[in-house]
Fold this protein.
Amino acid sequence: MKIIMDTTEKKLIVEDGDRTDKCNLYSKKAFELVSDQWLKMGWNEKYLYTFTWMGRPVIQLPDDLLRIQEVIVSVKPDVIIETGVAHGGSLIFYASLCKVMEKGRVIGIDIEIRPHNRKAIEAHPLKRYITLIEGSSTDTTIVNRVKKMILPHETVFVILDSCHTKSHVLDELRSYCDLITPGSYIVATDGSMKDLYDVPRGKPEWKWDNPTAAALEFSKSHNEFILEQPAWQFNESELEQNITHWPLAYLRRL
Ligand SMILES: C[S@@+](CC[C@H](N)C(=O)[O-])C[C@H]1O[C@@H](n2cnc3c(N)ncnc32)[C@H](O)[C@@H]1O
């Protein structure tokens, strides 16, 4: 596909095989087309590796953090479980929401919590909201340990951000789905891998081996979950699609 941005004529020209489409540069369609490319370019440039939340690196697109904040604030979970801790920035982000909501705690699971990351998370002012668990998120011992930490009446919200292969995410979805309370979510992040397979830092197999493929397969056999983008809570635009690295990520329990 070839996209030509004509800033003089204020047009976007899209050539795809024999087909040529032209739209106004300042239109919803052009914004969506350019955003799709911008996401791929930004990912390749490691734009996501440039942010911190309250002092800890957080490897996320700010749009995704703001959108998940909207969802978490509307669900107000008692427990937020995140697989994939890395530097701890996302755990601190969720913990800061718990503090402001005056509700909730966070459980972070990672196969390897590096000593300097553990030390920084444990020294953070929001540490009292956080429990760290080291081990594979799909290891039965770890899954059972997490399940024992949840009380029967508690509302649970899960974010999957560990290993992003289809099989691992599918295992995670199956391991943690029982914990999700009606109205809450399990979120399979980083499905944009399906679109990143052809960028220089991507891998060809990501076209099929990605979290979106796992979420789609899971949703087919779990009618109690619906796979859809949560509605925006404020929108004075004509836009309606998230600008996201988490397409088809949000599975809401009915
Ligand atoms: C993308 S990073 C997490 C980023 C973090 N959530 C953030 O937003 O800053 C992925 C993490 O998953 C962890 N990981 C990889 N395989 C895992 C597994 N099987 N179980 C748990 N964690 C795993 C890695 O050690 C790494 O720290």
